[in-house]
Amino acid sequence: MPTSKKELRIEYKNLRKALSFDEIEEKSLAIANQLIQMPIWNKTYYHVFLPIEEHKEVNTEYILHLLSGKDKEVLISKSDFETRKMTHFLLTDNTKIKKNEYNIPEPIDGIEVPSSKVEVVFVPLLAFDVYGNRIGYGKGFYDKFLAECKTATIKIGLSFFESVNQIDDVFESDIKLDYCVTPEKIYTF
Predict the structure, then answer these.
(1) For the whole model, what pTM was predicted?
(2) Which residues contact 96 (CB under 8 A, 6 or more apart)?
(3) How many domains does the chain have?
(4) 56-74 confidence digits (pLDDT tens)
(5) Which 3-state string (H, E, C) describes 107-165?
(6) Which structural domain range is residue 181 located in?
């Protein structure tokens, strides 16, 4: 059983690659339905990632519908690959979204909101363990962003797959999740 970030990254990219479009939609909807049961809906600012379809990420459109129905302020980000920093913008009816060179859908511009205002973050990931450690693509964007958030910010990973027992090479700078939601289960850390 692989336990290093590198091995797990390869394994989970392959598992994701094997998913069909219908499976992605079905699992993404199941994740959104799990989220409805969580005690997270009394906040105002929610940060959502827009999925990289080519990487078969969780389709967050269902979560966006939930947030819109609950009249929440939704933030989406633009990534700067030089500084590895994310800038967050309010998602409005006028927000224009364009894919960057890495196929990440991003807002072109808009009303900027600081990380310190974010109360709930839905975090993309490839794999996670029973301790709340996550593995992303290894660029460190989310670790940097989550470090800028308040300690009270709720960090929720979204995964198509269940947890692994343990990720061996966790760094002190890696920020743990508070929850991870899969189509079958809500993990609390």
Answers:
(1) 0.94
(2) 107, 108, 109
(3) 1
(4) 999 999 999 999 999 999 9
(5) ECCCCEECHHHCCEEEEECCEEECCCCEECCCCCHHHHHHHHCCCCCEEEEECCCCCEC
(6) 5-188
